[in-house]
Amino acid sequence: MIPYQGRLVFKQYNPMKTHKYGIKVFKLCCDNGYTWNLSIYAGKEKEQAKNRNRAGNPVSVTKKKLKKGEITAKENERGICILKWRDKRDVLVLSTCHTDDTVHGVDTLFTSRKP
User: Fold this and answer.
1) Which residues are in coiled coils (predicted)?
2) Which of 7, 75, 78, 109 could form a disulfide with 100 if both were Cys (CB 3.0 to 4.6 A apart)?
3) What is the DSSP letter of 87?
């Protein structure tokens, strides 16, 4: 925490510190103290890409009702695979590493089995 008393939207308050107000900073350093990366905490991050109805997403995948453990996928002409599976809730993933063939081969991994 870097001490700071001015006006900032992302100023933090920590009553346990000697400097109670300041800017929270995360640093990634190597063994000799060289800073590799620096990140200023500016509050809770917003989730991204929650729009399932985005233009270009195939409706046959996004609107399909799935039971727990089921998977559906479709690949477009540019090699982007959109897949959807259901665990506790629907999970929608865009991938360039998988194809719709490889996705359908692993659907038994997501089924839960009780002993």
Assistant:
1) none
2) 75
3) S
